[in-house]
Write a structure and sequence with these properties.
- The complex is a heterodimer of chains A (475) and B (386).
- Chain A is of the alpha+beta class.
- Chain A contains nine helices and 14 strands.
- In chain A, α2 runs antiparallel to α4.
- The N terminus of chain A is likely disordered.
- By secondary structure, chain B is an alpha/beta fold.
- Chain B has two domains: 213 residues, Periplasmic binding protein-like II (D-Maltodextrin-Binding Protein, domain 2), CATH 3.40.190.10; 155 residues, Periplasmic binding protein-like II (D-Maltodextrin-Binding Protein, domain 2, 3-Layer(aba) Sandwich), CATH 3.40.190.
- Chain B has 14 helices and twelve strands.
- The chains are: A alpha+beta (475), B alpha/beta (386).
Amino acid sequence: MLESARTPPPRHGSIRRTLLVYLGALSLIGAVLLFVAARSYGRAAADRSYDHLLIASALSIADSVALVDGQWQVDLPYAALDLLAMAPEDRVFYRVASREGATITGYDDLPVPPSPPLDGKPRLFDALYRGEPTRFVAVSRWVAGPATQGQAIVQVGQTRIAREALADDVVLRAIVAIVVLSFAALALVWIGVHRALRPLQKLERDLSLREPSDLKPVAGEVPLELDQLVGALNRFMARLSASNETLRAFMADAAHQMRTPLAALRAQAQLALDEDDPAEQRRSLVTIERNANHMSRLLNQLLSDASAIHRSHLQQFETVDLAELLHQALYESIPQSAPRPDVRLAATQGPVLVRGDALLLREAIKNLIDNALKHGQPRPGSEGGPLQIALTVAEGEGASTAVLTVADHGPGIAPADAQTVFERFARGHDAAAGGAGLGLAIVKRIVDSHGGRIDLSNRVGGGLIVTLSLPRSAV
Amino acid sequence: MKNECGKVRNEKKRHALRYNAARCFCLYWFLILLNSFLAPAHAAPGDVRLFKAPQARSAQLRIHGSTDIENFAAVIADYQRLHPGTEVEYSDLVAQDIYTRHLAAGRGRVADLLISSGMDLQTKLANDGHALAHRSPATVGLPAWSHWRHEAFGISYEPIVIVYNKRLLPAARVPHTRRQLLALLRDPAAPLAGRVGTYDVARSSVGYLLATQDHQLGSMAGALQAALGDNRVRLEERTGALLDRVTSGELALAYNVLGSYAQARIDAGAPLGIVLPEDYTLVLLRTALIPRTAPNAAEAGRFLDYLLSPRGQAMLAQQVGLQPIRAADGAPLSPHARDGARVRALRPIPLGPGLLVYLDALKRRQFLEAWRSTVQPGRKAPADAP
């Protein structure tokens, strides 16, 4: 934690910025959409209200059209054009024409509607007339005179000034609303993001204020989304704490274990120095040599244990052949010079594949063989036999396991010791001298980290059987 | 009075011209050619007068107006005091001519400013896109009813009145409403038979506008027309002629006359009386407009601003006898800000599309036919004027 605080890692972006960008963009898009909608709505609303006037004007003109003696008559109603003065700044144009297109009265150069109007259905359209955008309506009226009948088309146009003004007004009001809304949305987004990120900041502050040795779980309420993170963090801290504890215990144990042989060494060496008799000196030196050997072995085992701890934490497993590892371990553990111990190996044909760390597994097997060679000698007077090592494959329920058994003819293990032999520096009551009490502990650690099992049992007639089961690799 | 006589002569000439459009334009173009070959326009008598720039000429302004030159000259002179570099050419035309000339004029002979009492014709020019919008500090405060689209501007406020000869009509008999006028016309003693006058709506566009507005506003218009016809109403084209006849005693009363002209006669000592009808008094806005094709539009805008300025308005009131559209302090006049009982009665004719209705060719023909049949019963309808 402190490490990361001192040297900030390269930034991969900020949650706050991401949130603000996305939410800001969202409200911006919303504002644009609202603006577009308001504009089209404003135009439509303005057109709708003024179109009513335009249509009313055209209809009132159409109403005044008559056919007298085959002659068209139009008595332009005053209200028809005065009505359009509701849009005070707008110019108005009108035309009454027969269906055939001949102008009866009005402006004869008005733009023609895109399609002729049907009876009773006003046709509205926009066109440019005399340099100004103009809204037109065309209505048709069927007129029957005493002798003749015909159809007249009344077209009324009005420039768009009042419409645009109304539409602009609507849009302006909408813009004011949109701007206010957008700012409100942005402010809420800002506040929301800030509030949402506050637990994270609190967590960070909590952690950065801690003592380096303080690995207590993070306390306090956290939001749902941070639950997982804090849980993971707490588990990690618990592991770290446990690991620290193991390390400290190991160091204390190791120091304690080293102190005794070192004291013995110092005492023997002192003895040798004080002795004048060469024979006595030699005896002391032999003792010193033996103690040094013992310490060397102890140190090796400690290193092996440390390595086992380290590698089992790494868990860098691959598929390995247990049979191959067994052969290698045998080769490395059994002294090649005489006297060669009597070892009998019974292994299945072909490779026995498990997932694991080759180095650790080999170490475990070596430890078992070493143990068997060291402690498995028959007691004086009892019947001995060869060291029996077997590698078999057992098919259990749905799972297949590789089973390695090492059976010796030693004294076995007292039931009282069965639980403690796997603890560090614990040794059997009547174990032969020279052991550090680490062997089985290391094996147990390795097997555990591989998801396997180790069992001890005493064989009938004296001797210990160590059974090691490892799950077989699927392949 | 002298001027009026000159005007009558001119009217005859114009009368002939108007009844033959082709000849009119031939002569018109001939005059233009003559002008371009010979001399500046001041050579043309009566109708056109050139007001030379008091100082070195830096701007030109050509005005077509329906106001008498003699009255308007003082306004132009005052303008030239403010803008000494401007040469002004003023053509005195009737409203209809201002309209038709503008439509017929080719480039180069277009006036820069049209000032006409023919509100409807000016509105039509604006509606048909012939007018230039004019916005300036002077036009900002104008009341909405006094302009349309910032293209047509009312420059004066002219009540339409009944004028009578005080010597011929005793005060007690003077009609103050149209109903009273109708009663007077229908009086069995026929005091006004042959002695009442009004505009000839077929020839006078102002008369036509007033008659149509009467028709639009009053339910009595038809009856009044018929009564006028029964009294063998005298029809004149111009206000001046009408007032001449009332002043001389030939007519006792004239209906629907521009009040400003009558007031000018009264101020000059004529035995005339003015009545603002109390049922309603139409108010005509003398309307100015800058054509889109005006060669000197900027100068026209400046002149228009002057006319609308307090100084210009005061000048119009003093010299031309036109009531200003703005009050003396420059504030816009409310359309009804008059004294006493007449407050409710003043009805300014609104500038706007409504005025186009009676300009519709069919509508005009129908209206004139109906008008003739009531005002001139028994007389055969002459050819319609354009």
